[in-house]
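Annotators were shown the component list below and the corresponding predicted structure, then asked to write short factual statements about the assembly.
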Amino acid sequence: MIKYQPIDPLVSPRFSGIRTFMRLPNEETLEDVDFIVAGIPFDTGCTYGIGSRFGPQAIREVSGILKPYNPVLDVNVFDHCSGVDYGDFPTVPGFIEETYEMVEQALVPVYKKNIIPVCLGGDHSVTLAELRAAAQVHGPMAIVHFDAHSDTGDTYFGKLYNHGTFFRRAIEENLIDPESAIQVGLRGPLYDGRQFKFAQDAGVEILTNWDVRKMGIKATITRIREKIQEKPVFVTFDIDFLDAAYAPGTGTPEICGFTTFEAQQLVLDGLKGANFVGFDIVEVLPSGDSPGKITSFAAAGVAFDFISLIAFNKQQGN
Amino acid sequence: MIKYQPIDPLVSPRFSGIRTFMRLPNEETLEDVDFIVAGIPFDTGCTYGIGSRFGPQAIREVSGILKPYNPVLDVNVFDHCSGVDYGDFPTVPGFIEETYEMVEQALVPVYKKNIIPVCLGGDHSVTLAELRAAAQVHGPMAIVHFDAHSDTGDTYFGKLYNHGTFFRRAIEENLIDPESAIQVGLRGPLYDGRQFKFAQDAGVEILTNWDVRKMGIKATITRIREKIQEKPVFVTFDIDFLDAAYAPGTGTPEICGFTTFEAQQLVLDGLKGANFVGFDIVEVLPSGDSPGKITSFAAAGVAFDFISLIAFNKQQGN
Amino acid sequence: MIKYQPIDPLVSPRFSGIRTFMRLPNEETLEDVDFIVAGIPFDTGCTYGIGSRFGPQAIREVSGILKPYNPVLDVNVFDHCSGVDYGDFPTVPGFIEETYEMVEQALVPVYKKNIIPVCLGGDHSVTLAELRAAAQVHGPMAIVHFDAHSDTGDTYFGKLYNHGTFFRRAIEENLIDPESAIQVGLRGPLYDGRQFKFAQDAGVEILTNWDVRKMGIKATITRIREKIQEKPVFVTFDIDFLDAAYAPGTGTPEICGFTTFEAQQLVLDGLKGANFVGFDIVEVLPSGDSPGKITSFAAAGVAFDFISLIAFNKQQGN
Amino acid sequence: MIKYQPIDPLVSPRFSGIRTFMRLPNEETLEDVDFIVAGIPFDTGCTYGIGSRFGPQAIREVSGILKPYNPVLDVNVFDHCSGVDYGDFPTVPGFIEETYEMVEQALVPVYKKNIIPVCLGGDHSVTLAELRAAAQVHGPMAIVHFDAHSDTGDTYFGKLYNHGTFFRRAIEENLIDPESAIQVGLRGPLYDGRQFKFAQDAGVEILTNWDVRKMGIKATITRIREKIQEKPVFVTFDIDFLDAAYAPGTGTPEICGFTTFEAQQLVLDGLKGANFVGFDIVEVLPSGDSPGKITSFAAAGVAFDFISLIAFNKQQGN
Amino acid sequence: MIKYQPIDPLVSPRFSGIRTFMRLPNEETLEDVDFIVAGIPFDTGCTYGIGSRFGPQAIREVSGILKPYNPVLDVNVFDHCSGVDYGDFPTVPGFIEETYEMVEQALVPVYKKNIIPVCLGGDHSVTLAELRAAAQVHGPMAIVHFDAHSDTGDTYFGKLYNHGTFFRRAIEENLIDPESAIQVGLRGPLYDGRQFKFAQDAGVEILTNWDVRKMGIKATITRIREKIQEKPVFVTFDIDFLDAAYAPGTGTPEICGFTTFEAQQLVLDGLKGANFVGFDIVEVLPSGDSPGKITSFAAAGVAFDFISLIAFNKQQGN
Amino acid sequence: MIKYQPIDPLVSPRFSGIRTFMRLPNEETLEDVDFIVAGIPFDTGCTYGIGSRFGPQAIREVSGILKPYNPVLDVNVFDHCSGVDYGDFPTVPGFIEETYEMVEQALVPVYKKNIIPVCLGGDHSVTLAELRAAAQVHGPMAIVHFDAHSDTGDTYFGKLYNHGTFFRRAIEENLIDPESAIQVGLRGPLYDGRQFKFAQDAGVEILTNWDVRKMGIKATITRIREKIQEKPVFVTFDIDFLDAAYAPGTGTPEICGFTTFEAQQLVLDGLKGANFVGFDIVEVLPSGDSPGKITSFAAAGVAFDFISLIAFNKQQGN
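Structure shown to annotators:
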């Protein structure tokens, strides 16, 4: 029996009621749940267009339109999974290290119970806190990182932590296994030609947009699957992986990116059956979104695909 | 002991968490509460700019910024009152009579327990359902109606119900006592010079914007108080009472209207100590609002003043 | 001699004058016309993002930029066709069945005179009224349905009519011939895996976005042509067939959709030479559109391609 | 018998149909009309925020909401007046002198038939063309000029004509009688302290915003009436007379301005019974307007008050 | 001879060229200047709507429209003053204490040379850094604080510094003289009735919006002048002093506020002739501004009035 | 030693400081520079959606995000090139021929010094002035013209110059060599089937969007290279070459266009190593852009690719 599932749209219209993700119950519980959706409304790590503290709210707002059956995976999420909207994790606006501690502490019990968190950022700095919590339970993980940017900066004005350094820190802190790590979609001008070197030297595979275009989506999928294999894997999706036309509402939009359909192929075909530890989707900036809120719709769709992957695994008995 | 009050902003930032009104607990309960805030996301009664079904959500979204102490009334709401965000009442989009029944049924128990509802529209047609429920308990009430429009149309394409007819229907159905009714702020071009006649003949007092400007806010307040006296009173506030510059996000914006400060004077000084039955604030249209969401901020402020009036009465031992 | 054609842009600039579709004369006439463009500003059938009552106006507003020669079909529309902007059909906001009757009555004489209507919605519920009128003259028709959603819901809160049920009603009412019906572009989460069953059991062909991507645009075109053959065919285009990036201004935007170029290929190559009865383009929601009004531009472009198809047939002597 | 009046809103909803001003018939006729509304979609005279070529369309778009009875003047416009939406006058984008000639030629017959034009700009340069036409019939007129700017610049990059010089040109060309001219609402920083000198030396009365605030609206009204007396008077209203909060959609918004109510008082009480020759309302910039389109609503309201003044005179037998 | 002044608008149009404040030369010099305009693009101190890091840019963008002569003070700024756009002070996004140090260091030499800085925020936390610098030179100053909020919070999540605590810190750090300090315009709900106590106990005068309304603008001006007298005075203007309708683009908009004209009266009449040390204008949030950018126009206008006050003093020989 | 390069982002954050293109020094110098970036804020040549006078500013505003290394060409721009933001060229708003002269005069010395200008429009009419200047030095050039429109109109209301005629004028004035000219991306309805004839008869190659789609990007690149060979080439990029979804902020958006990635392929692979004379990017209309400013980001990206091509040539010793 599935305990927590969305409100039936025939009981109240989709535009009705308090906005939780996908109209799931807002319960801060770890009992009888397979996954939780939780916000991390934090953007102090942002070095350019700021305001992703309002990202979780914006994604929830449009997510009421989501329905439970994923036709691509042929799975009805709530035939197999129970999930809640866990609310937002605690943060201290303006103070990144304190926030890291609070988010990490809040997430450790989730990982310990083998519940899969789907986190809604916030800027990309929050992923480091998630990884710290996950690594306490799972050790260094495989990671699939969809992004326009490598986020492997070293320091910025002498500071270690911001949304452009999380991936380097995660390697340095041994939270992820670089040999099982892949970054997909990187593009745009760089500081210099050595910007990817740190990660590549550590063993990370990097596929730029030109790489993906040249090899095609199918080969990219193969490359992702080869990298992560059966290892516990964390999936982090920066919304700017999508082209600026598909996700205008983000802090550092990049042109020459991907469509939502390409993203869906990579996420569903690239990750189906993998051994998931956690997911996040970050950098949604509502103040830059179009009036039709297409960035939030895209982020909600990605989050739904994440949840569908969890359900698919359950369905398959993984 | 006050059972239900907002989340402490020092526990989580104001931009954090699931959006309920003023960060109140989302509980569908009538125990231990003095007031409830409830949405009525319905706009089928709208004859022009539509979309106020998203009004309750938009008001909740910005209401997290509200703090508990009202300096004008010198009252800390949650020293005296317990309140919840009751969620949204059931509606059937596209079907007004069915919605009327559902809202009425949902509200009758609230009125029976002498809990004061603060409803968030929705278009102004919903007020009729609220009045029907209230009148079951209180009989024909006094009413204070802040609006740019008189809403005393008869039929529209042969139909009785829409957002421009509720006030006439309320008189016809004996839900309000016209002798204790006052409409404030009416303005703009009319169909003809007899448009106010129906209400005036019934005994309703009408103060247009020119009337209010001529007599001043103080005299207007006196007139309101004289009209309603100690009778059970329902207060309905159409956001287009405010000038279009102050509330651009509404279906039929009207120029030559009032400032938020004038509205606050009328609401707080005009209604302080009255014998309240219910409140609503209607016609917020988020798609027409400015990027800064000033219409939603204004509506949240009016709703807060309504709640403060409830608390003030409690404080005074009324 | 072509009687009705657009105002010459060298007589007045394209941004000048009363906005009719493509600067055609606004005449409510059925004499000397081959096609009419008519709005159906009705959105009471909408269950989520509402406001497509302003759709016809928004499409007309930008359509002044259209020029008469279609280079893809190598046809100058007004060398072969006379057309007018017929204005908007009567509607009753808030009342769907009455509106259905009024639209149907208004359209029957158009169909009787073998004039091809190009209707601008409004939400997708209006298509049922169009089909009812068309079927009075043509009997059950072939239909090509471009959409992200199947619109084959049964009832919603016990009601038969809204924008998510028109296709099912059309089958039930024998307005369309399911064996000659094809739905293209369906995507996004569903209520369950049986949602397409009703239509498919009746004989309708369904091509989801994944189907189209897999088979390619060319094979899709072949499939459309095989389905409709020489039968009288109605073409209905929900703007959300386009990806949310290409058509953000719609009530239920869906990601993972199609580009305008793909749509143009499907419309022009897929339908060239077919035996058209009527066209519509629906679900344009101006309040959700980007400041550049790209959704309205896209809709105007689709409508122009519809008109070009009419002219192409004339040119070919069909 | 009044020949031309708006479509009855009970025949079709206000959001329905081709957008003409106030739903008047779009007829290019000078028979059986008392006033015409005509657009002048020209903005080449603009020296800063450009785009008022779309102003007439934007004002028409929202004007459907206007009703025929003006409660302030107690007059039902179409009991006394017949009027049409005459469409837009011809213009040549990018070429101001050619446009001046075309507009002048188009307007002379209107003035000759003693029909009162209510023109919708366009930038303020178009007023010169209107005055040239009017002066052919009426000689040098009185003028009431509501504006934030004096528009008495001399040349700009050596050029005589733009939206900042029309008033000086009108004096120089003897189109207006400076002794019967008044400018109301001027404000904001100037090039130097002598900027008003040219007009004042010619006899023009200038009331800045500080002047109006000091003397009050009533005294301002008296001053206007004293100036214009019974002379033929032209009224030109630059929408930036209104404060930027009330009319954000304009090319050079100015703070510290007036409310729509103050404007209405000045227009209705200041001009009631005057001997009108022509009216215009200019500088509406839709691309700068708020999503709720409050600037267009304000402009439509001013235009309606102009029409009401015409009707009031008819009613009084003037 | 005035060395630095704006580019002549007859040399290049106002919409042309690199955007500096008022088209002043962008020079990082302290020679031959009477005032500097400098940005502090920092918003890490913000606890709600964030993004004022883009404030300085937004104010500069529209400031090209400003002209040199202030008609209210009858002063042509650049007849008396030389000024530059000094660019932006250094900041470290995400790190408030480091930023405080950098801003303070950058400002000390300015104060030492008796050059008056007009700073453009940034959130209100930056004012503390400005005061620290100023106090090094001038000791504890008088202060006039226009704001909707008292900014006298103590700690927030245990942290001393953010945009809601600067005023308390300034008192604690002895940067301002509370007996010569006045806060004007405070309004909106509070945490409790004792929120103003800290400042009032220290001797600060607080005038809420209701106070100002009751006593009138003139009496308010008197009160300001009495407070500051001849003492060195710092003026800080939070844009949310203005009503949300006049300044929608700010992080925590408050209704029931002031118009730009009221602000101008208070600034020009309230401060004329005072002994200025420094000025700032803070909390402009471009992402919340209306498309017409009225908040930026308002802020540019306030900054121009500040500069005019400096010039007025020069003119008067103060 | 490279003299002029961007401010180091570790010295001041990317959102900080006066906005020049890519944070280059704003110097009006032709010494020690390889390229200049210059704005031409002129839009009087625009026949529809106007406002590109604000284009240069909008592109500069977002260009601070650009970094110096182009990974596609493997070149670090400022290892090889020195460049400045030259500011904006002089223009006279409203007067096209005067502006042509001023821009031409300003550009001749640039071309004479073999400095490559990258101009930011402005509407497409400005390209004629650029070509006139370039041809003085280089004679008739090869040209690559990316655009949705052919811009080969003859006259418009009897006038020779506007944004739809520059290409024809350039042929007539012998500024470009038609045999070495190629137009890529043309699409949308035309006046008639002969609209491309003038250019094609002169020898220009035209590739419509359907042509490009049919032959593919690679073959298109080949065609471009064959056309221009080693000749001095001017590259002009109308932002509406991009699909309306990718560049909504433009005066005449066209659907069925290209993605930014396709554009990047054509620009970088199509032009790598060519013998560049000048570049421009035109028709950015900020008022039509999405809140996320994606059109400006796209334009900045194209401009960066232009600069990268210059640097690549230097690197290769061309």
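Statements collected:
1. The domain at 21-315 of chain C is CATH 3.40.800.10 (Arginase; Chain A).
2. The interface with chain D takes residues 11-13, 15-20, 26, 39, 41, 53-54, 57, 60-61, 85, 87-88, 90-93, 287, 291 of chain C (CB under 8 Å).
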